[in-house]
Design goal:
Layout (H helix, E strand, L loop, with lengths): L4 H4 L3 H8 L5 H14 L3 H7 L5 H12 L13 H5 L3 H7 L1 E7 L2 E6 L5 H11 L2 E6 L2 H20 L17 H5 L6
Amino acid sequence: MAVTAAQSALSGLPERLVADSIVSVADVKQAIEDTRKAKEPLVSYLVENGMAEPRAIAVAASHEFGVPLLDLDAIEIDLDTLRAVDQNLLTKHRVIPLVKRGQRLFLGVSDPTNLQAVDDIKFQTSLRIEPVVVEEDKLQERIGKALEAVDTTMSSFDDEDFDLENLDIGATEDEEDVGITKD
């Protein structure tokens, strides 16, 4: 396929989306301009405005950046894995923790160029972050469900579970028997 002058001005994911006939050159250029003004991720903009299919964008991103692709419908995310990342970071960066293995956290992203998300979550968790491309629409749905699940588990605690007024912080019997001596 011959590269046109308009395409040569593009690079990375936008260039791939045009080359794969997912989005027109004019649409992707307009989307880039709009997302810069709104400070919104390109992938989110394209999906929310119906300019491209989420699956097609995810496949293109996976191929362009050599990042694995995962269908979020194929896995169940553990609640402890969800709690590993601050909820504010999930919504701010539009990401979701998928699986924690040892010191690695696999992170679902729709835009693998979002290095700020990887850095922020790496800093917060002290884990090595491995991005995995997922579809934007499924990602947003899963983030919403994840936040509900975390909120539900936290709201299941009663005030009695946190009753600090009746907390006994006195010495235990073992501590009372230990004498302090000066040498």
